[in-house]
From TrEMBL:
Record-given protein name: Multidrug-efflux transporter
NCBIfam families per record: matE (TIGR00797)
Keywords: Antiport, Cell membrane, Ion transport, Membrane, Transmembrane, Transmembrane helix, Transport
Ranges that cross the membrane: 46-64, 93-112, 132-153, 160-184, 196-216, 236-257, 269-289, 316-335, 347-372, 384-403, 409-431
Amino acid sequence: MRTQVNFKTINQLAVPATISGIAEPILSITDTAIVGNIPVDGLESLAAAGIVGSFLSMLIWVLGQTRSSISAIISQYLGAGKLEEVKNLPAQAIFFNILLSIVLLLSTIFIVEEIFSLFEATGKILEYCISYYSIRVWGFPLTLFTFAIFGIFRGLQNTFYPMIIAIIGAVLNIILDFVFVYGIDGYIPAMYLEGAAWASLISQAVMAILVFILLLKKTEISLKLVFPLNKEIKRLVIMSLNLFVRALALNAALIIAVREATALGDKYIGAHTIAINLWLFAAFFIDGYGAAGNSMGGKLLGAKDYKGLWKLSKKIITYGMVISLILMAFGFIFYRPIGHIFSNEAVVLNTFYGIFFIVILGLPMNTLAFVFDGLFKGLGEMKYLRNVLLSATFLGFIPSLYLGKYLGWGFYAIWIAFVVWMLIRGLALVWKFRRKFKPLVQNS
């Protein structure tokens, strides 16, 4: 049966994917907003939450790439009508991924102080980083497990169930944040930053349990480990390794940005924490159409429907741009109130307002990169995605950042470098897609 590429079918995938996609940044934003308003050491707590959040995001993004690989392979086999051939693949992929995450968790837990010292964290900020991370890190394997199953559902053209799980997790996290951070008189003591960590960990555990139940009840995919290895395990590993390297390059940019902001001073890392959380929130918001491209793109490629694939690319970028323009308008209209959600520290807010316009103006370029990034993952073009990110980071972001620093641009240099980074990523993907698939459309 031919896949329909229209507003309805795209948004049936994109809207739930958008809602589930923003769950993770909502968790971070909630922590940032609540932690930033802690009455005791609020600025230090905000800085620590930002540093630890960046490091954990790196770990999750680096090892969470199996999700995209599983989604691509399942959607392609679904489009080709051969889903039965890869039913035992997800269990094998998830088992090895979780095993690797546990090894990484155990290897970092004993060198926490050394890790966050590399981020220029010192004194009370370093102390808070250690206590916050020591709790939140245990949610790392749970998040990877949840993400991998989200990938299975996405490959099956189902983004609705991940949306439900993400909403439950986000709402639960917000409630627990208020309860644990500020406490309840006579019942629960205020735990401040550690309370935010416990709220995130419990929410991640609940999401993992619920998504596991849904997979068992609503699909025929089994998580029972069965041998021999599936024939597609080699391709999945190669795709995941390419995305692994890509994620390292991506996080190199994010971590260098955090390190440079921390080196500038407490007010800068506080402002950067707010800005990067808003940047990630917008990224995941726009990425809903990248998720639709991921699911439908793989299926259309499996069916060799190149005209449908070309039509899909045009529609998802159009819809994504509309969303980015709405977000831009929202950002400029509520320019100052947005900052007050996260902090009442005047010195942090003034620093944040100084660069927030760059975050907003960069949204269309981000859209181009995120939407085509999702589409390319569905097509299995992981090697090219790897090369684009390596080029954008080491030939774009890092040179721009340190040139700006040399020229005395200070905090502005970090966010100008982000603009350069995203511009390279977006344009490179558009060029490759047109070059590869336009001839296939013309000949089909």
